[in-house]
Design a protein that fits this description.
Number of domains: 1
CATH class: Alpha Beta
Number of strands: 6
CATH architecture: 3-Layer(aba) Sandwich
Strand order of the largest sheet: 1-5-2-3-4-6
Radius of gyration: 14 Å
Order of helices and strands: HEEEEHEE
Helix content: 10-25%
CATH topology: hypothetical protein tt1805
Shape: globular
Largest sheet: 6 strands, mixed
Number of helices: 2
């Protein structure tokens, strides 16, 4: 059974905060199954953007946890906002979570589309 989006985001916030980093919800989405997007602040002016991985990215037999795709790397805040505007056009019930001060790979599994 997959965790609800709301529960998963709450757990992420707790884990990141416990590690001494910063995590905040920028937009609350649908509690049960809203798509979760992560904005990772790398420094004052650069961000990474992670989106939910496509279902076909999940291997058979793999635990039904959340998997993310690194969609944008080292981009400006305006590029992140442009991407989020597009995502909201597809689904207004998304979650947007910003993380700062940690390695995101320590907290979520993701695949890098650049590989």
């Amino acid at each position: 059974m997959r965790l609800t989006s709301e529960f998963w985001v709450s757990a992420l916030i707790r884990r990141v905060s416990t590690a001494g980093a910063f995590c905040v919800v920028l937009q609350k989405g649908a509690a049960e199954a809203g798509a979760i997007f992560l904005v990772v602040r790398r420094d004052a002016d650069l961000y990474d953007f992670l989106s939910p991985a496509l279902q076909m990215s999940y291997e058979a037999g793999q635990p039904p946890d959340r998997l993310f795709e690194k969609r944008l790397t080292s981009v400006s805040e305006s590029e992140i906002e442009a991407q989020l505007t597009k995502e909201r056009g597809f689904d207004p019930d998304i979650w947007v979570v910003e993380v700062e001060g940690c390695e995101i790979a320590d907290f979520v599994e993701f695949q890098n589309l650049e590989d």
